[in-house]
Amino acid sequence: MAAGTAVLCAVPGIVAALPVPGSAITAAALRARILDSAVVPYQGYVESTADLGLPQLPDLQDVSALADGVTEQYAWYRGPGEWRADTVTAAGENDVYQVGPTTYLWNQSLNLLTKVVGTEPIRLPRASDLLPPSLARSLLGLASPEDRLTRLPARRVAGVDAAGLALHPASAATTVGTVDIWADPRSGLPVAVRVYARGDGKPILVSDFLQVSQRSPALTTVVPQPAPGVDQTTASLASLNHILNNGRRHPWPRQLGDQDFDPVADGGLNAIAFYGSGFARFALVNLPDKVGRQAVAAVTSAGASALTVTGGSEVVAVTPLLTVVLATFDGFGGITFLLAGTETSKALEAAATSLLSLLASFAGHGPRRHR
Fold first, then answer.
1. Smallest Cα–Cα separation from 352: which of 317, 303, 300?
2. Which of 2, 59, 108, 366 can pair with 93 through a Cys bridge, CB separation 3.0 to 4.6 Å?
3. How far apart, in whole angstroms, are the C-alpha atoms of residue 105 and residue 127?
4. Strand 102-107, strand 176-183: pairing
């Protein structure tokens, strides 16, 4: 019995040590299979590690935890409209349910289930965005036709003999150096992702399945079933718009710096705009007055550099992968814009300066620029 138990315990280690068979699939074919894998069911356990080095911003503690630290979560996925992801932390459990067009957010520490009505074209990052399948498809979806694809050696990830794919962004304006993805070559299901900053040999973002099965979970598993006494509330896209932009609607400029407006945000959330293409892309958000002042103070106290430009000032926080610029316009009582993306500080500063200059010209300010 002792000998048999020892053999059984040794089997996983023996299997993991066996050579991983290579796959003849081309890089282009693997990319296409990964992008088509949204219909592949799965269930498993994922560990993600991020080291983005972002400063702490007010009211964004959950996002900061995703950007710097380890995230562990269980996932059950039947299809694009039927899935669930549970994140377990010291503070409690946070779950995301997708039921058709409706999203449910469960916060155990608050005993609160929030129903989000309607499609969310733009939102803050969630832990479920770090799951290898969704992360890999999102990153490949951002790639431009000029970006280069190459194959990587196969790896065994959570029992899957996975084929490797490397994506090399072509734009010199992005901070992203390489994106490495490993996926099941038959189904296209991504099981591991690595994101490297330009010129850095250590990945900034890592996401791996530690356990995975390509079996469809039961429907009851991915539908929230709140117990008696659970508080429930409903949020909508309209209310989020009001919170982000103080009820003001902004006709975003068609171009900032040399970056063109991306109409992806025209889906209804007018408080956020996107500029650029491929990985040389950034988001532009109009922050509420109080949040804007708090964000500037937080980033400044973290050691970010400040720049005075036409119409206002800019505070710049640079990390290996992400760049953040807080641009404050002096007119109209002070308005702060957050620009953030995987762009170089030079490109993002140019966009922020262009925005403030446009606002200054509308307000009748004379041209000036000094440090």
1. 317
2. 108
3. 12
4. unpaired
- Helices within 144-214 (DSSP H only): none
> Do 252 and 228 belong to one domain?
no
Per the domain annotation, does 371 fall within a domain? no
Domain termination site, one of 205, 232, 259 = 232
Look at 80-89, 185-194, 305-314 and tell me which has the smallest mean pLDDT: 305-314
Q: Which of 1, 264, 26 is nearest to 141 (CA)?
A: 264
Q: Are residues 268 and 204 in the same domain?
A: no
Spatial neighbors of 101 by CB under 8 A, at least 6 apart, are 81, 118, 119
DSSP letters, 328-357, are EESSTT-EEEEEEESB-HHHHHHHHHHHHH
Q: Which domain holds residue 227?
A: 21-232
Q: How many domains does the chain have?
A: 2
Distance CA 148, CA 166 (A): 8
Amino acid at residue number 306: A
130-149: average pLDDT: 95
What DSSP element (H or E) covers 193? strand 190-197
Judged by DSSP in three states, 100 sits in coil
Residue 235 has pLDDT above 80, yes or no: no
**Higher per-residue pLDDT: 348 or 270:** 348
pLDDT band at 342 (very low <50, low <70, confident <90, very high): very high
Distance between CA atoms of residues 218 and 207, nearest Å: 25
pTM above 0.70, yes or no: yes
Q: For residue 181, is it within any domain? A: yes
* DSSP codes joined into one string, 59-96: T-HHHHHHHEEEEEEEEEEEETTEEEEEEEETTEEEEE
